[in-house]
Fold:
Amino acid sequence: ELKVEQNPLFLSMQEGKNYTIYCNYSTTSDRLYWYRQDPGKSLESLFVLLSNGAVKQEGRLMASLDTKARLSTLHITAAVHDLSATYFCAAANAGGTSYGKLTFGQGTILTVHP
Amino acid sequence: DGGITQSPKYLFRKEGQNVTLSCEQNLNHDAMYWYRQDPGQGLRLIYYSQIVNDFQKGDIAEGYSVSREKKESFPLTVTSAQKNPTAFYLCASTLTGAGNTIYFGEGSWLTVV
Structure:
């Protein structure tokens, strides 16, 4: 059974600082997703990572995937208040053909303060 | 504009009632999904469908039912058998293929009164 764990679950950051959110998954996965959720809102897709060593960047966010370590990271550079949200990672079973069948982590609540 | 439309956004259910949440997409996606989110937690898969007239149970299907009579529509019924239905329900869809983005609707809040 695929399990996904994120840490930390709560992250309070100062503006301008860097930090990393970690996402570990328990069994082989060939797809790793990162989503952002604002309070009371739906999920916004951030990154889709498909292969070992994949790295994607958008603005102050950078995601990477190490399939051997079963680990994905979301790195935040020079945080700004607008990044305050809950961030989820989600993984799919390797070889599965149902592409939206995901197992989600618990979410990391990020708060950026002055 | 293309997207996923869920309705209603807020719904109150009395004990013993069945309620149906609507999900419509105009993205021409083959696969559709229903997830449930409880406060402070991640999402859990209820049901999914990869083609019309076919669907499979997810991890927490008990107390729910679905249908897929049209490609663009995947309604979810929360039955009276679901003992703790208060949650945020999210519908998602995607094209087949590993690299495709999975899109989510705006969600429906269901509260039991």
Chain B touches chain A at residues 31-33, 40-45, 48, 50, 56, 58, 90, 92-107 (CB under 8 Å). The longest strand of chain B covers residues 43-51.
